[in-house]
Design a protein that fits this description.
Length: about 650
Amino acid sequence: MRLGIRTTGRRVRARLRRRARERHPERLRLLVPDLRAASAANRIGATRTLLDAALATTDASGVDLDVLLDAGYTADVAHEMRRITAYVREHGDQAARTSASQFPRLPSLLGTLDGPREDLEQRLDAWAQTPADRVLAFKVALAMKLSPALVLLAPHVTPADLTVPQLSRAALALWRAGANDRGLELARAVPPGSTASAKRARMVTGEHESFALMESGWTVPPRRDDGPVYPPQAGSVLHVLHNSLPYRRTGAANRTQGLLSGLVREGYAITGVTPPGFPYDDLTGEAARAVVARHEIDGVVYQHLLNDGVVLPRFPVQEFIATYSAGIIEHARKESAALIHAASNSYNALSGLTAARELGIPAIYEVRGLYEEVRRSKNPAHASTPQYAFASHLETLAATEADHVIAITDGLKDTLVGRGVPADSITVVPNGVDTERFRPLPRDDELARRLGLEGKVVIGYLGSLNWYEGHELLFEAFATLHERHPDVRLLVVGAGARLDHLKRVRAKLGLEDEILMPGSVPFEEIESYYSIVDIAPVTRLSSPVTETVSPLKPFEAMAMGKVVVSSDVAIMTEIVDDGRTGLLFRKEDAASLVETLERLVTDPELRARLGSQAREWVVAERDWRILAGRVAGVYRALGIEPGPITQRV
């Protein structure tokens, strides 16, 4: 009875608070009880919603704004700390404060964290007056995902200073930043279990345990001398994937569908298998309940190993390979697969190779990228970490043990050859595009009107907003170009880690009306957005990954007859024939980019000619059906011929 009374009382109080907030939406104090409760319970979604409402209030009287800080730690969204700081600057004088209040220090702390990396340690030393200051700085840097500051401040923080969610996030951030000993120490301080924090900590301890694979000399099973364990079905190929349509619409998933549907046309029976638990790492609620284990898209069958909705952790790798390879073996037997074709990453590949060796059938590893090189591109010091050595070891092992390797660029092939993989065992099959879907379209006048782009020359980027794409360079060049040509507009469609940063860059340039950033758009609307684009920029910076790994987006633009302007990173010189299928500019050179863009802005005939020639090239060289023919050639070289496609149930 008492429990029922307490529950009823809580509901009544919550209802009264909601009514009070409706009458006085300007008062922060009316949100404080619910905000504090959500934050303390680590209810991330509720905290984000309440924090958003709190930062919209205008009356902070009587409230210690440390409640916003605590909510910011829980929300775990990098830009929220900047919003909280702006609120403190505007309303801090109204707020209540005690000698223990930390919020008054927030504006100066952000100024310290925002400066150049070179003298960050000296700035932090000057700012931090007490041990509590260093803990505050660590927590704020953690919420803002500022790894350099975390590494510097980590020695001054103990597990007792942090909540369990903060412990796990800090452990993973430090581990990924190369502060391995400290990251491992914090991960081991997280209580074990099935919570999100425990799973996050297990990523650290599991990867550390996985290093034993390299030290022990583990490899995949030997090839069987007695041949396949079952009669293979002619033309039946099992693809081992990291993710797939329709649950993930990444460049990798699009490449998979493009190649596999082309292989179906070549006469192969194709089944794609995804790791145990995919796609539940992306989906919740109704979307998760709607997941089906097996479906078909344009003749390609996708089989998801749902694993009762539990996502199989990548680490320890030994456990991942054992579990995934067992699922692969089960479905290879069902399909009487004659070949296993695994795509990046190495964990997928080694799972596929293990299954193939157990079954006595050949296996291909398709290398689409090397994640360790992505991390090295962002942080050169990563090359000296055990994580880099381990990832490189596994990728090299997978490529060496495969019966054949497919690489998506010459640069990736060269990297693998440099690691000891025989050159004659690698075939390059580059990225491509569906030239039937992506074709020249009339301008979508309604979309142009809605975006305010009628009568404008539109420079348009559609894709992810990552650090290596060079968008700051693009914004800088556009600012100069716009001064000379006021009718030019920049359209940036997409989302990613740099979205909020780029919005701040846009505001600093005073170009909020000239640089349009509508965010992500549905996959089926991409062609409409391309229809209003005149020039498609690819401003990638130079790094190990951008010099060797090919993006997909340029092919979509070229297939739609748009002229591509690209930096001359090595891989883009393989795609853009300067002056024939597009134009190149000197990488990381804003003046060269301005000059190249200006040529096209002022010459619509040049835009039309280069765009038309670009489409002719992709139709002839980079259509998925043509590229699938190259993959089929690799299959035939391994003795895997197309065959009759049996009815599947």
